[in-house]
């Protein structure tokens, strides 16, 4: 994610035991970000009921975070390179804590949406520094062990996020209901701020790229012009200005490309390194990453709505139902990187897409067969199949995309990979209005809600299966045997995984 990632720690910093305290602090921050993404989905019905949020506002509560996170990721990494990773990390974790407090104290849905945008922006400052601090603090021979620990934290966050959200919502601590999922960040964030200022060693890149704030503004504007009409269109009866705005987003994208070309020629520090797209495997991989993000953005939101609104399940029951999925993702991800990809290469990722599609189709069949009487154990098989498919993809995908990228561009390329995945996720959350709510009538009697949401869920899953088919085809452009040549090659993977399991 960064233009340069050199080991800048002094000899004392490398040998000092304090580096393990620093590692615990930055990993806790990464865990907090991951949990905060996954924890929100399970609390959505409580937010909708208690705060009076409309379904479009619910989409913004999730998509706003993803959009702000995506738009700020590369800039956050560069700010750390320029001004110091420790300093920007502390600004990020402090801002994330303040934003969490604002989310928990929100007096209306609009304030909650705005606070989620702020939270995503602060995460974009905090998260890119985590792996840079690891690189700057630990010698090369220790990083493999550190990245292994980081992967374990990612897996733990994937499993514990929905469960923690379910428990906090069910327990209704101090009568806070859903607010506790945000307010729990306060003591963790304050502790991280105090301990981080003491134990983290400062580091900077020797030749950091300049900021490209115009590029960030154009990316954000283009995505907002696309997402806002998608999310609000259904309830506004699809006005003409919505179509104009979505078409205009393509114009903004074209302006972005032209500006990035000029910026690269002028000072060599564009937000997006356009020459990377001449590398066939990178361009195809970016497409895979984006489309994958769209599919996951759709699935996770409609899955929550289906279980809690359609089936009337409690947050805890819904949270526990997702545990087999999370475990399957973690196990398959470990196997794919260590055992399968070295032997079978690209075929493992393509098998993952087909297995995930099979799991989605099996889920559609189970949901249709059992109807509203479906039980969590009847969902276990399709969820495990989907989880295995997803695990086969998420862990080795970054290395496959980067394998033909020149080493000197690896930092920029991995930053772009993470950014487009988040953008795809935000776009998928926006598309929920079309593929899910678009099939639900605005005026449902109470007895019609369950069947309507169950039908809409099956329709949305049909789109997710189609997305997996498209990913399978796009993967033919990836190299048959990804080369593991980027130093610290697992770093981009671990930075990406939280978003994928949100």
TrEMBL record:
GO terms for biological process: response to antibiotic. GO terms for molecular function: transmembrane transporter activity. It comes from the Bacteria. Pfam families: MFS_1. GO terms for cellular component: plasma membrane. It is a multi-pass membrane protein. Gene3D superfamilies: MFS general substrate transporter like domains, Multidrug resistance protein D. The chain crosses the membrane at residues 20-46, 58-76, 88-107, 113-134, 146-168, 180-201, 213-231, 243-260, 281-306, 318-341, 348-365, 377-402, 423-440, 460-478. InterPro entries: EmrB-like, MFS, MFS_dom, MFS_trans_sf. CDD domains: MFS_MMR_MDR_like. It is found in: Cell membrane. The keyword Transmembrane helix applies. Residues 22-481 form the Major facilitator superfamily (MFS) profile domain. Keywords: Antibiotic resistance, Cell membrane, Membrane, Transmembrane, Transmembrane helix, Transport. This is MFS transporter. It comes from Streptomyces hawaiiensis.
């Amino acid at each position: 994610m960064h233009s340069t990632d050199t080991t800048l720690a002094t000899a004392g910093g490398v040998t000092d035991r304090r580096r393990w305290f620093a590692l615990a602090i930055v990993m806790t921050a990464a865990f907090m970000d991951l949990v905060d993404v996954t924890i929100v989905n399970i609390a959505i019905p409580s937010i909708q009921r208690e705060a009076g949020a409309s379904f479009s506002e619910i989409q913004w509560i999730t998509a706003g975070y993803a959009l702000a996170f995506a738009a700020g990721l590369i800039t956050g990494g560069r700010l750390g390179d320029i001004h110091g990773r420790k300093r920007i990390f502390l600004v990020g974790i402090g801002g994330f804590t303040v934003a969490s407090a604002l989310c928990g104290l929100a007096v209306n849905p609009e304030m909650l949406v705005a606070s989620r945008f702020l939270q995503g922006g602060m995460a974009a400052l905090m998260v890119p520094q985590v792996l840079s601090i690891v690189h700057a603090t630990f010698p090369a021979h220790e990083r493999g062990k550190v990245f292994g620990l980081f992967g374990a934290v990612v897996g733990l966050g994937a499993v514990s996020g929905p469960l923690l959200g379910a428990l906090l919502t069910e327990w209704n601590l101090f009568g806070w209901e859903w607010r506790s999922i945000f307010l729990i960040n306060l003591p963790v964030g304050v502790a991280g701020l105090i301990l981080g200022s003491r134990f983290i060693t400062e580091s900077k890149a020797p030749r950091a790229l300049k900021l490209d704030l115009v590029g960030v503004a154009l990316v954000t504007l283009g995505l907002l012009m696309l997402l806002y009409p998608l999310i609000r269109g259904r309830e506004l009866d699809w006005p003409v200005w919505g179509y104009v705005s979505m078409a205009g987003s393509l114009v903004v994208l074209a302006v972005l490309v032209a500006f990035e070309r000029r910026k690269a020629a002028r000072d060599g520090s564009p937000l997006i390194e356009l020459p990377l797209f001449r590398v066939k495997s990178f361009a195809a991989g970016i497409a895979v990453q984006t489309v994958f993000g769209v599919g996951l953005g759709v699935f996770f939101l409609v899955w929550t709505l289906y279980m809690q609104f359609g089936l009337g399940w409690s947050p805890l029951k819904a949270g526990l139902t997702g545990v087999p999925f999370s475990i399957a993702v973690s196990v398959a991800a470990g196997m794919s990187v260590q055992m399968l990809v070295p032997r079978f290469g690209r075929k493992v990722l393509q098998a993952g897409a087909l297995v995930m599609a099979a799991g989605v189709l099996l889920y559609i069949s189970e949901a249709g067969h059992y109807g509203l009487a479906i039980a969590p154990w009847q969902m276990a098989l399709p969820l495990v199949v989907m989880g295995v498919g997803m695990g086969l993809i998420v862990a080795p995908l970054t290395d496959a995309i980067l394998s033909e990228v020149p080493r000197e561009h690896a930092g920029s390329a991995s930053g772009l990979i993470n950014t487009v995945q988040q953008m795809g996720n935000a776009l998928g959350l926006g598309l929920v209005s079309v593929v899910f709510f678009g099939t639900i009538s605005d005026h449902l009697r109470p007895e019609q809600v369950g069947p309507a949401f169950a039908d809409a869920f099956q329709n949305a899953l049909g789109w997710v299966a189609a997305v997996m088919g498209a990913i399978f085809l796009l993967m033919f452009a990836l190299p048959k045997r990804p080369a593991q040549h980027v130093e610290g090659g697992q770093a981009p993977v671990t930075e990406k995984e939280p978003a994928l399991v949100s």
